[in-house]
Structure formats: structure tokens, C-alpha cells
Amino acid sequence: MFTQTDLMTLVNAGDDSLKVSLFLPTAPSGRETLQGRIVLKNALARVRAELDAREVDDSATDDLLAPAEAMVRDTDFWQHQSEGLAIFLAPDSPPRHFSVPIPLTEEVVVSEAFSVGPLLPLLSADGSFTVLTVTTNRVRLFEASRFTMDEVDDSGLLSSLQDSMGESDYENPLQASPVARPHTADFSISNAQVYGDSPAEWQDSQTREFASRVASALTAYQASHPRPTVLVSGAEYIGLLGSTDAVTDSVDVDPESLDDQKLHEVAYEKVQAVLDDGRARALDTFAMLRGGEDARAVVGSGLVAQASTEGRVDTLLYRHLSPTEASAEGGESDVEERRLLDSAVIETLRNGGTVYALDDSPVDDRVRAVLRY
Fold first, then answer.
1. Cβ of 138: how many Cβ atoms within 10 Å?
2. If exposure means fewest CB atoms within 10 Å of the residue's CB, which of 40, 171, 257, 297 is most exposed?
3. What is the per-residue pLDDT across 259-307, written as a single tens digit (0 to 9) for each?
4. In what order do the strands lie in the sheet with 354-357?
5. What residue ranges do the domains of the chain occupy?
6. Which CATH number fits domain 295-371: 3.90.950.20, 3.30.1330.30, 3.40.309.10, 3.30.200.20?
7. Among 130, 61, 134, which residue's Cα sits nearest to residue 270?
């Protein structure tokens, strides 16, 4: 999944070398899946022509495009796509590609900076949340949007109860080795007498400690990734974790019984109202400020882009323009507006603001913002 971290990695690629950004429509199933190979092959031919016109050496072009040309030949790769594919290539940098659940218009950009505009709707706050699944044997964390979700490998959360405990401190005396258990014939001896707590009490204590550590790690993760979190787990862990501030809502089901697609569906159903409410409140706040002629309500890509570079945008509301729409609606002026809008979204996110991508809006209110001051 394309995340804000991925966005910043791309926009901060600061050298002046020519970079290639490719956006392609793809198909998740059916015979159309292999059409993506043809679209990518034709797009790469356009890139070669562009680089040749810029007098880039043929061997450098070959090296730059080699990873994408390998994708053309990889039949299995095209069987695992979604609605769109974005590919980013740069000299002396690892290639990056994202299979995304939104339709993309075919576009080729050769520039000194990566083009990321078509992917920005994926970072809209009304579709961004976290899914946490907890069982005794497995803890998983996902970054999710209203479209899809992707597991976080370096979340800092424990992986299981055993991970929390390390080696078990409790050992049943009748299961210990002969040397470790003198008096095994005396069955009246109790676990509590030998070790303190009974096995059930000890297990309960370990489970509570495990849940506490998961909650602490989740809170730490949310400090740099603030978004609603849905817990999917059984009743025991919902009871221990569901009431913490880190969890927005919960689903009482064994997460191991669900595939990732179904897991996303049940989690999004729980959090959708919260996400929709955030967008509605942002629109109401903008309307109230503008109705009162408050200078914090700003309209227009130029003014919003300027405010975003100054770190003043708290909330940005916009309707994204595809390249086709930009050309059809206003030619060069709308192409420039698209550039300013992309910059405004990036800078708003960089400075900790919130962004909402709207499905529709009046042309004169296509770009709206609520400023911090």
C-alpha cells in the first residue's frame, strides 16, 4: 500500500538526475490482466523517445529502464495487480512500484523530480486507519485505507504471548526432569506450594502483562501514525485492550479465521462512520469560517499552496484532477493548478495537516483549506 512514508521518500529524492514516473491502468482478474504488459511496453517506448530527445546515453537509458522491462516479461507479476500500477525509476536508486486500488490514467513523466499526484487520493484522512489483530499466538498490525490494507513489518509490537514472556517462568513439577522434581510420588503437593501462583493464575497474569505491552507499543506507534484503530480479536483480548484510548472500536471474531480481504471488510465497517464524520466536520468548519468571512478559510490552489509551504494549513479539502481532466477543462492553466495542488497536499502532510480528497465539488471551490492562523 502507498503510505505517507513512501510519499516522503519519493519527494525527498533530491538529486537532479532525470527520474521516470509511470502510471498505468491494470486489471485485478480476467484476461485483461495481461493487457498491462502491453501498456507498460508502450509507455517505456515513450520514455526512451523522451530520454533520447534529451540526449541521454543509450547505456544509461538501458540501465534505468531495465527493472520495468523485466516486469513486462514477468507473466506472474501481472496476475497480482489491482486497479492501477505506479512505477518510479531513478539512476543509482532501487526501483519502486505500487499496485494501488484506484484506477489510474496512463501517464509518463520524465523530470528532475518524481511525479506523485495520481497517488495522493490514497492518503486522504477519511480512508486512513489501523487494524490490530491479537491472538495468543500472533499479533499483526496493518495500515489501511478504505480501499485496502498492508501489514506493517516494523511496528514495534510484540509478535505473540510467547514473545512477551520469553521462556516460561512457570513449569509444572510433574513435567520437569527427574533431577528437578524430587518427591514426584507425592501427588498431594500443589503447584501453588512449589511455585506460588497456580497455573491458571500464572497464565492470567502473563496474558494481562502481554496485553499491557501490546497497548503500550500501539500507543507509541500511534504517536507518529495518528489514526483510528480497529481491534480484531476474541473476547478476552477485547476486554483487556478494547477500553484503552489506543483502540477506536473492536470486532469480536478470531482474526485467524478471516483472510486479509475479509479482515479489511469487517474492520472498515466498524470505522467508516468515524472516518466519514471527520470529513463532514471539516466541511462544516470550512463553511462556518467562510460564512463569517474568517481569513482562515481559503479557496484556490495558489493561496492554499502558499499557505501550505508556510506550514499554516490545518485541513485541506480538494477534488483531484486527472491529467485528462486537467487538459480537457482548461489546458495549461489547469495543468498548472494540478501542480500547485499536488504541492499543497504534499506540504500539508509534511507539516502534520489533514487532507481530504472529495469526490466532487464546485469548480470555484475545488481547493479549500482551513488555516491554523
1. 13
2. 257
3. 988 999 999 999 988 888 888 999 999 999 999 999 999 999 899 999 9
4. 297-299, 367-371, 313-318, 354-357
5. 4-117, 130-272, 295-371
6. 3.30.1330.30
7. 130
Coil/strand/helix, residue 373: coil
Q: Is 24 strand, coil or helix?
A: strand
Angle, CA of 327, 329 and 334, to the nearest 5°: 65
Phi (first) and psi of residue 81, to 5 degrees:
-115, 170
- Residue 320 DSSP code: P
Strand 129-135 to 229-233 pairing: parallel
319-to-27, 66, 145, 277, 352 alpha-carbon distances in Å: 24, 35, 18, 18, 20
DSSP state of 22: E
Model pLDDT for residues 106-140, shown as the tens digit of each residue: 999 999 999 999 999 888 877 789 999 999 888 99
Please give the model's pTM, rounded to 2 decimal places: 0.71
